[in-house]
Amino acid sequence: RAAILGRPFGWSEPRPGRISRPVRVCLVYDCLYPFTVGGGERWYRALAERLAREGHEVTYLTLRQWDEGAKPDVPGVDVIAVGPRLELYFEGRRRIGPALRFGRGVLRHLLREGRRYDVVHCASTPFFALLAAGLARRRGRFRLLVDWIEVWTLGYWREYLGRFKGTVAWVVQRLAPRLGERAFCFSRLHERRLRAEGFRGPIDVVGVYAGPLDRPDPEPAEQIVVFVGRHIPEKGVLAVPAALASAREALPGLRAEILGDGPLRAEVERS
Q: What whole-number distance in Å separates Cα of residue 168 and Cα of residue 152?
C-alpha cells in the first residue's frame, strides 16, 4: 500500500514496496486504534506505522479519544488532536456534530500548517474533513489522496440518517468526488459508484486478492461459525445468536465466535 502512494508523484521505486525518498504525509481520520475499534481505525494506524517505518515524516490528525494530558504512543508518528473528546455514536449511528467539529479542526490545522505536507491522505467520511482538506489544498500546495471505503446510495443515506439529513449527506457526497486527485477503493462496486458520482482521476482498487488461484487442500471442518466485524446494525451482528439457535436444530454441536466491538456489544452478549 505504501508503494501505491508513491506512484502519483513520479517517484521511482528501486524495489517493490519502497518509495525512493522521504515525504511529509498527513493522514486524516477522526478515530485512532485502539482508542476506537474498527476496520478503518486499524487500517489508518497500520498505514501510519508502515510509512513511518519506511522513513517518512507522518502526522495523524484525529479527534482526542484519550485522557487529557496523555499522548498516544504510535511509533514514529506525530498524533495531533484537532478536536475534543466527543461521543461519535448515538443509538448506533454516527453523530453529525463530531464530524463538523473534526472538519473545522482539520481546516484550521491545514490552513495554518498545510505547507508542511507533501501529501494529505484522508478518508472520504466524515465528509467535512475531506471538504476542509479540499478548501485548504490551494493554500497548502499539498497533494490530496482520498480513501473511498464506501459510496452510499441515496436510499441508504436516508435509511441511515432519516429523509432530510440523509438527503443532505448524499448531496455532500455528490460534491466530495470533485476533491482529491487520486482515489483508493476497496471493491469494484464502490469504484463503479465513485465513477458514477463524477470522480475523474485515477482509482486504485486495493485489498483485492491477487494471490495464486490453486485450490489448497482443505483442513478438517469444524462446527463453528465466526463473525468478524464492528458491532453495529449494518453489520448484522444481532442476527448471529438467532441464526445459531436455528442452525443448532440440525447441528447440535455448532458453536459461534463473535469477534470485534462496537455500540451493540452489550446487546450481543445478552443474546
A: 13
Chain segment 38-80, per-residue pLDDT in tens: 778 888 999 999 999 999 999 999 999 888 777 888 999 999 9
Which residue reads 453495529 in cell numbers? 232
DSSP 8-state secondary structure symbol assigned to residue 219:
P
pTM: 0.75
User: Which DSSP string corresponds to 70-117?
Assistant: -----TTEEEEEEE-----EETTEE-HHHHHHHHHHHHHHHHHHGGG-
Mean pLDDT of 138-152: 92
The Cα–Cα gap between 239 and 232 comes to 11
The predicted-structure confidence for 29-40, as pLDDT tens digits, reads as follows 999 988 887 778
- Torsion sign across C-alpha atoms 3, 10, 54, 149: negative
Cβ contact 76:49 at 8 Å: yes
Q: Are 142 and 154 in contact (CB under 8 A)?
A: no
* Residue 218 contacts residue 194 (beta carbons within 8 Å): no
